[in-house]
Amino acid sequence: MQRLPLNTLPAFRAVADLQNLRAAADRLHLTHSAVSQQIRLLETQLGFPLFDRRGRRVVLNDAGKVLLRSVQTALRQLDEGMQAASGAALGVEHRLRISVLPSFAQRWLLPRIRRWRDRYPDIHLEIDATQQAVDLSRQGFHAALRQGIGPWEGVESECLFDGPLSLFAFGCGADAHRLAGREPVDLLGEPLIGGRDLWQSWFAAAGIDTRVAPVAEFNDLGLMLQACEQGLGLVLAPELLAADALVTGSLIRLSPISVVHPDHQSYHLVYPPRLRDWQPLDALRQWLRIEIDISRQEIGRSSAL
Question: Residue 170: phi, psi to the nearest 5?
Answer without folding.
Answer: -125, 150
